[in-house]
């Protein structure tokens, strides 16, 4: 698959932003407890590494990685240029916050929320790159739902798996975060499912005028991946139910297997997304 670097890039960066989002919520609960704050460091390092590897993977798609610098010359008119700028700013601010945690054993108050904001803007730009293209299967609001949905789902799974706020003094805060993660995952999967009929109807009636990339091929590929898409939705729904129920009831094995199903579904969704383009 020639779009494999983009699959890796988008999922890693969106996962990194999701982790940062939940870290921001966790810091609010742990700011008065140094022992709890120190538990945030592995998650910060994971977010940094995932974001950094994602950016490296994105350059592999260019063929000649140094061409990435040329994309910065059109920030005013290019979503790609804006995405590169905000991805770089996001990673820089997150890196500073992680460095602060390593040195001071405490994150700077404003850096983590700022990194989250920059990351969410970056995901918007990332979505707009594809939604503004001439590939008919991408030119729909479903693209934003899938990309932002990955942020919430991957962040929720990471938060549930990592020992965030696992200190006895803040276990109540962890319980609230787990339940927030459970509700978020259910909401994301439900909204995505509700949007699918409109998306399929759009593809069936998509206008051909002005579309340069011959939309017959993406739509044809979309239909050919029907079995894989069905499997992905089954994995996503079952994973969301198992994850949410287990997170609410504090059942570790259920959280683990439900999270694995959710991650598998996100990978398959993204594979189909790029295969039909």
UniProtKB/TrEMBL annotation:
The keyword Transmembrane helix applies. GO terms for molecular function: oxidoreductase activity. InterPro entries: DmsC. Its EC number is 1.8.5.3. It comes from the Bacteria. Keywords: Membrane, Oxidoreductase, Transmembrane, Transmembrane helix. The chain crosses the membrane at residues 6-28, 40-64, 84-103, 110-132, 144-165, 177-195, 230-248, 255-276. This is Dimethyl sulfoxide reductase anchor subunit. It comes from Leclercia pneumoniae.
């Amino acid at each position: 698959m020639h779009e494999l670097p983009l699959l890796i890039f988008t999922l890693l960066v969106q996962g990194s932003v999701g982790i940062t989002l939940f870290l921001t919520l966790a810091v609010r609960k742990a700011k008065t407890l140094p022992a709890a704050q120190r538990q945030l460091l592995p998650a910060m390092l994971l977010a940094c590494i995932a974001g950094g590897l994602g950016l490296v993977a994105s350059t592999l798609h260019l063929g000649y990685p140094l061409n990435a610098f040329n994309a910065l010359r059109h920030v005013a008119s290019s979503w790609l240029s804006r995405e590169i700028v905000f991805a770089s700013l996001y990673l820089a601010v997150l890196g500073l916050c992680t460095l602060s945690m390593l040195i001071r054993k405490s994150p700077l108050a404003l850096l983590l929320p700022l990194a989250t904001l920059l990351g969410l803007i970056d995901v918007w730009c990332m979505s707009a790159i594809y939604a503004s293209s001439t590939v008919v299967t991408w030119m729909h609001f479903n693209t934003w739902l899938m990309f932002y949905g990955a942020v919430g789902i991957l962040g929720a799974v990471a938060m549930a798996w990592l020992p965030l706020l696992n200190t006895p003094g803040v276990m109540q805060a962890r319980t609230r975060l787990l339940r927030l993660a459970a509700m978020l995952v259910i909401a994301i999967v439900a909204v995505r499912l509700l949007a699918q009929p409109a998306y399929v109807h759009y593809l069936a009636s998509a206008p051909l005028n002005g579309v340069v990339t011959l939309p017959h091929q993406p739509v044809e590929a979309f239909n050919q991946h029907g079995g894989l898409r069905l499997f992905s939705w089954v994995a996503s729904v079952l994973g969301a139910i198992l994850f949410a129920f287990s997170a609410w009831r504090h059942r570790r094995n259920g959280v683990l297997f439900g999270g694995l199903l959710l991650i598998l579904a996100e990978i398959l969704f993204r594979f189909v997304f790029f295969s039909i383009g």
